[in-house]
Amino acid sequence: MISLPVFQPLQADMVRAQLKHSWLENQILNKSPGDVVDLWHRGAWEALQIEFPHRLDLATGLANTIEEGFSPAQLVDLLKPFAELSRELKAEIRLAVHRAYLLASGIAALKPSLSKAVDALRAELEVLNSVWNLPKSVEAEELVRRVWEQLLERAHGLREILEQLPKGIWLP
Amino acid sequence: MRYYWFDHTSGDAEAPRLDGLAQLAVRFGALKIDGPPLSSKLTEFNNTVFFVHAGGETGDQTNWENIADRREKRFVVFVSSTPAGLSSHRDRLDVFCIKQSLERVVEDLTREEEKVDQLRKSFEEGDPKWDLFLPLEWPEWVLAGYLVRLAQEQGVTVDDQELPGGRSFWLKVSEEYEMLASRLGITGLSKEALAKLLAHVSNRLAK
């Protein structure tokens, strides 16, 4: 497989990069349990309530469109030499190229792992949200710490799978 | 290293007439030369790069090819107003043809000044990195050709007449491919050859 950095922004690639870098690495994995306990003591963590659910939805969307997102079939509509191709021939080439890509890339096999990882992280974030508003106590602090430790594991897992995705279009 | 330019259309003018050659000369600090050095004086031109718009009585391409010598670091770079017409010189490491628009090449070198430094260094080392003259652009025709070959492999019947431009589709693929592949030892327009070229472009774009 040849991985082609694309000459136009690729939606799937942008989402992959944002999830891995802007979200997981810069907002979750860079925080120790101690850091999150500090945040908890300070009160509301806006990102937890507003941004994280949005990122999870993006991750779910990425999992749902993983087969099309990095497919070279998209090039049939982007390349200037194909601009005047008949609609029927474009469709035939698009389909054949996509089929070859699915067979060669095995990307469909990543879909269940990616969905599972997203769901696991979502579940852990829901637990964190539920303990976040507990009255401040030593026990509650310990709970926040433990939940965050679990959440870090889930975040690492998701990051590993995002690392396996293409960084651009894959040509079979 | 010393640098010279020759333009058979310039006559006595102090600057090249060929569009882009003056800017290329400025990039390298190249001085004018009136023709290929005489064979008796060749050693005086060791460690020299010649930018040549060949033609006319004094400027036949073969005369310049004959003075190029990698061991003596005499290198010749051919430029032209019709670059696609230049031959590839695949077998020679001391002669290079800029088969793309010279204005684009100069624009690229102006934008990426470190390429000029890298080229100078490679000339001094006697191992010219000719690739650096090639502006990095997406080879859309090669990509399109690759996808057609892939579709044909999957059983799609693609008649040349159905392709944009008919038979000239593959001519355009071939021209773009030749510009990029001339130093890579790749031949033919098979899916494997196109893949090798695309992998090379991909690696360069990733840097």
Quick structural overview:
The complex is a heterodimer of chains A (172) and B (207). Chain A is mainly α and 172 residues long.
The order of strands across the largest sheet of chain B is 2-1-3-4-5
Shape of chain B: elongated
Radius of gyration of chain B: 19 Å
Mean model confidence by pLDDT of chain B:
85
Q: Helices and strands of chain B: which structural class?
A: alpha/beta
Low-confidence stretches of chain A: none
Largest sheet of chain B: 5 strands, parallel
**What order do the helices and strands of chain B follow?**
EHEEHEEHHHHH
Q: Give a short account of the largest sheet of chain A.
A: 2 strands, antiparallel
Strand content of chain B: 5-15%
Helix proportion of chain A: over 70%
| Uncertain parts of chain B | none
Distance between the termini of chain B: 28 Å
Shape of chain A: elongated
Strand content of chain A: under 5%
Average pLDDT confidence of chain A is 91
Bin the helical content of chain B: 25-40%
Total number of strands of chain B? 5
Indicate the radius of gyration of chain A in whole angstroms: 20 Å
Description:
The complex is a heterodimer of chains A (172) and B (207). Chain A contains 8 helices and 2 strands. A two-stranded antiparallel ribbon of chain A has the order 1-2. Chain A has 172 residues and is mainly alpha-helical. The mean pLDDT of chain A is 91. In chain A, helix 2 (33-42) crosses helix 8 (138-164). Helix content of chain B is 39%, strand content 11%. Chain B is built from 7 helices and 5 strands; from the N terminus they run E-H-E-E-H-E-E-H-H-H-H-H. Chain B has a 5-stranded parallel β-sheet with strand order 2-1-3-4-5, sandwiched between helices. In chain B, strand 3, helix 2 and strand 4 form a beta-alpha-beta unit. In chain B, helix 3 crosses helix 4, helix 5 packs across helix 6 and helix 5 (140-153) packs across helix 7 (191-206). The two termini of chain B are 28 Å apart. At the A-B interface, strand 1 and helix 6 of A face helix 5 and helix 7 of B.
